[in-house]
Amino acid sequence: MPSYIQGNLALDQKRSVPAAKAKVKIKETTKVVYRNKSLPAQEKMLYLFTVLLCVIVAGVIIWRYASIYQMNASILKMQGEIREIQAQNSALKQEVEKLQSPDRLKEEAVRLGFNLQDEKQVSLVAPGKAKTGTNSSKNTKVASKP
C-alpha cells in the first residue's frame, strides 16, 4: 500500500528525492517605469485661466439668482403692504359714507344747535354780494341761526 493511503507522506520516497535534486530558480525581472513629462507652463496657465473663467461665470450666475430672489421678496412685501392699505382705504370709505349720511348730518346739526330751515326762511343772495370763487350766477340758500 502506498504511504499516501495510510496518511503519511514522509515515507514516500518517490516524491522526496526529486524535490531535493531540483533547484529552485528565481527569475528577477526589472520593470521599466516611464515618467510623463510635466505640463508646460503655457498649458498650466491655460488650465488656470479656464478654471478661473468658470468660477467667475458661476459667481455671476449665483449673484443674479440672489438679486432676483431679493427682488421677489421685496415685491411680495410690497404686495402685502398694498393689500393692507387697500383694506384701510375700504374701511375709511365706509366710514366716510356713514359720516355723510343725511340722517347723521341732521342729528349732528340738532346736537350742535342748528334749527332746520323752513321754506319761508330761504333767502337769495344778490350776484354782487357773492363771495369770490363761488358761482355768482346761481342762487344760494343761506342757513340762519335763530
TrEMBL record:
Residues 75-102 form a coiled coil. Residues 125-146 are annotated as: Disordered. It is a single-pass type II membrane protein. The chain crosses the membrane at residues 45-66. Pfam families: DivIC. It is found in: Cell membrane. Residues 132-146 have a biased composition (Polar residues). One of its GO terms (biological process) is cell division. Keywords: Cell cycle, Cell division, Cell membrane, Coiled coil, Membrane, Transmembrane, Transmembrane helix. Its main location: membrane. InterPro entries: Cell_div_FtsL, FtsL/DivIC. It comes from the Bacteria. Belongs to the FtsL family. Essential cell division protein. This is Cell division protein FtsL.
